[in-house]
Structure formats: C-alpha cells, structure tokens
Design goal:
single chain, alpha/beta, Rossmann fold, Alpha-Beta Plaits, 2 domains, 6-stranded mixed β-sheet
Length: 308
C-alpha cells in the first residue's frame, strides 16, 4: 500500500532552490533514510511533508490526502519530530504526555491508559513524575518520540533524532525506532550518523543540493553500487596453498594476507562462492571461517558521493 507519493516537489527561497523537482514514493511499513550533507534539502523536504512548509511547485499525496488542500487531515495521521524541539520544563513526564494527548484531541477517557502505554514503550515509566527539566538529553529525545506516540500516527517524520546523543542514548532511541518499524509504522528519518541507519532502514534516498541522487531499497542499491564482494577466509595452516588456489579462481583479487586469514575481492554470486569454499575443503585445507564483509551505509555513501 502506497503511503506517500511525491511528484516533482520544488521549494524555492528567492534564487535558492532548496528542493529541486523531487519525485519518490514510500510504501506502508517502509523505513526511508534521508542521507546527505548539510544543505542537501533533507529538513526542507521533511517540513513540507509535515505540512509546515508549502512547496513552490509540485504535489504530494500522503495517506491518500492532497497535501495542498487537506493538510489538516494529514496532521491527524503524522508525527513530526524536528531537529530542535522544546518540551515544557515545568511539567512532569505524565503531565507533558497528557497535555499533548489533549492537543491531539485524543479521547479523554483513554488518555490515562495511552500515557501509561507510551511511558512503557519509551521505557521511562519510572520517571513519570519527574520534571522534564531533570531529564538527560537522551531521555528528552525519547520523550519527543513519546509525544508523537500519544495519538498513534501512521507516519513518523524524524529530523536528526540521534543528533548530539551519547552512544548509550543512541542505542536506546534506536531500540524504540526499531520497535516502531517492526510494528509496521512508516518512518522517514534523516541522519548524518549513518551507522545509526545501517540495519534499520529498508530504503534510502541520497540527497545532494536539493536533488535525490539515488533512491531505492538498501539491498538493491548495494548490489547496484558494489559490483564485487569482500570475502574473509581463515584457515588453520597451509595459507600459501590457499592463496595459490584462490588466484586460480576467476574474477578474484587478493587484498591482504595476515595470520592465516586471506581477504579477497571477488565478483561472484552465492553459488560461485560456495564452489570456491568447496574447492578449498576438497583439497584438504582446514577452513574454519568463510564469510563476507558486509558493506554498511557509510561505505555506500562514500562510494556514491566520491566514487571511491
């Protein structure tokens, strides 16, 4: 089911083109990562989708609604977390969530139950009566997601949610977002911390100077960009013999040999890799590890943006 359809969206500020005729679509349950340097247009695009900015040209349909004409209906179904946001410091966590639940017009009879569910979800139930001003930055970020959760949106628009967090806080926030993803929520998230998106996003859109340079499923893009694979083979002994046999195998290149571990680049499919492994074992070589080094989003970003 298509959740989002963007058709040639453009946003101009005088002579500056912040978003340049972008078109893309997002299906229900997808996690789309917006990747790109500062000034690429990620925040502008998210603000347009959040109905905060009006595009100069183009059209957007979100959940079947026309963004230009039915933005009030769209707001009932989305949750937008900007890069910088404020909560009311003199409210407790419970009071803060109750306030936003009422602002979102959640039915009064279910607000207490919804607040408890959200506090459990973001793992801050033990802080329910603490003031917002006493929270760490990581807890505030989770509360930001909690504020969105009280009205149970279908689409989450998150602008750099992990920015400025320490490693532990990032892991905790990531756990919340992965849970949302597993429950079928549609998430569009921008981040400079590419490792935070690795293994989390189903799709990526690489943005640069207001344009989408590349868009698609992570696995498909990796296959498109990386023509070869990096394989690590570890043996108990006879490393030189392993190297000799690998060199006889087509489309291979030895990258490094160290401590009975051979790292090679190979242009091969899974069946050809299996054949290489079988060949080594059949020769009586004691292979105890044969694995592929997976590329993450940082590798992908550098490959696309620099051609390295």
């Amino acid at each position: 089911m298509e959740i989002l359809d963007i058709n040639k969206i453009r946003k101009e500020y005088g002579t500056l083109i912040a978003v340049n005729d972008i078109s893309l679509s997002v299906e229900k349950g997808q996690v789309l990562g917006l990747i790109g340097p500062n000034g690429a247009g990620k925040t502008t695009l998210l603000r347009i989708l959040a109905t905060i900015l009006r595009p100069t040209n183009g059209s957007v349909r979100l959940l079947g609604y026309d963004l230009a004409k039915e933005y009030l209906a769209i707001r009932k179904h989305i949750g937008f977390l900007p890069d910088f946001f404020n909560l009311y410091n003199d409210l407790t966590l419970r009071e803060c969530l109750e306030f936003f639940a009422k602002a979102y017009k959640v039915e009064n009879t279910i607000i207490p139950k919804r607040v408890d569910e959200v506090l459990d979800y973001i793992e801050l139930q033990n802080k329910r009566d603490d003031f917002i001003r006493h929270l760490s930055r990581g807890m505030v970020q989770r509360m930001g997601v909690g504020v969105l959760l009280v009205h149970d949106p279908d689409v989450f628009l998150l602008d750099e949610p992990a920015s400025g967090l320490d490693p532990k806080a990032r892991i905790q926030l990531r756990a919340v977002l992965k849970r949302l993803s597993s429950e079928g929520k549609t998430i569009i998230i921008s981040s400079h911390i590419l490792t935070e998106l690795s293994g989390f996003c189903t799709h990526i859109a690489l943005m640069n100077k207001g344009n989408i340079v590349l868009h698609g499923a992570v696995d498909d893009i990796q296959k498109q960009v990386f023509n070869s694979k990096i394989i690590c083979i570890s043996v108990l002994d006879n490393c030189d013999e392993v190297v000799r046999l690998i060199k006889e195998f087509p489309n291979t290149k030895i990258e490094a040999v160290k401590d009975n571990t051979i790292i090679l680049e190979i242009n091969a499919d899974d069946s050809e890799l299996a054949a290489l492994n079988s060949c080594l074992v059949a020769k009586g070589l004691k292979v105890f590890s044969f694995c592929e080094e997976k590329k993450d989003l940082e590798d992908l970003f550098m490959k696309i943006s620099t051609g390295e």
